[in-house]
Amino acid sequence: NAGVMQNPRHLVRRRGQEARLRCSPMKGHSHVYWYRQLPEEGLKFMVYLQKENIIDESGMPKERFSAEFPKEGPSILRIQQVVRGDSAAYFCASSRRDGDYEQYFGPGTRLTVT
Amino acid sequence: AQTVTQSQPEMSVQEAETVTLSCTYDTSESNYYLFWYKQPPSRQMILVIRQEAYKQQNATENRFSVNFQKAAKSFSLKISDSQLGDTAMYFCAFTFYSGGSNYKLTFGKGTLLTVNP
To answer: Within a 10 A sphere around the Cβ of A71, how many other Cβ atoms?
Structure first.
């Protein structure tokens, strides 16, 4: 039973480019959370999605960041026009169903903006 | 707003000894969940132990146990018989039900634990 998959594991982008981070939840999981970990910091919540719905995006920066979780395929975190401050590790976690508080984390994507 | 505080940025312990990592939290919620996660150099987040606030009994998982003091809002992690593989960043985390099955986690800043041979 495969765990949460994230790709790419490492992503290098120049300032102004777009970054697309993918997350495939565990089989049977329909809830996805995205977290960001800045250097020397703990993880901070960004967005919570269920299939085809954004439930809570209170942690997302207002501009340049967007997320989706389509009916088919992985969840995508998209960062437009990246800046150096976007350099961080981005983690995805999934949970199984309504009322299930336990989250399973993917290995993360480390984004470096040059 | 919920906050989680880890007051020890770094700690070290000798192999086979016992170490305790501290965590305090602030919330007005009565039903919530607390976790300790381990992040080794690989950066993978690994769940070490969980505690439901409505349970009075402290959780244990093999060499890992917690001291949950609900009134004091304290949730410390004790690691017994420390092993070199325990070297990692340890994060305390909190969640509660905020509607719509949303259990977003709030993390502390972490404690870097080094186990010395």
So the answer is: 6
Q: Which residue has the tokens 């950066």?
A: B43
At A57 the three-state DSSP class reads: coil
Task: Choose the closest CB to B43 out of A40, A102, A107.
Answer: A107
Q: Indicate the range of A79-83, B69-73, B99-103 predicted with least confidence.
A: B99-103
What would the mean pLDDT of B60-82 be, rounded to a whole number? 96
Residue B109's closest chain A neighbor by CA?
A42
Interchain CB contact of A95 with B (< 8 Å): yes
Q: Tell me whether strands A65-68 and A109-113 are parallel, antiparallel or unpaired.
A: unpaired
Distance CA B78, CA B20 (A): 4
Q: Where are the alpha helices (DSSP H) in A1-114?
A: none
Whether residue A104 contacts residue A94, with contact meaning beta carbons closer than 8 Å, is answered with yes
Beta strands in A14-52 (DSSP E): 19-24, 31-37, 43-50
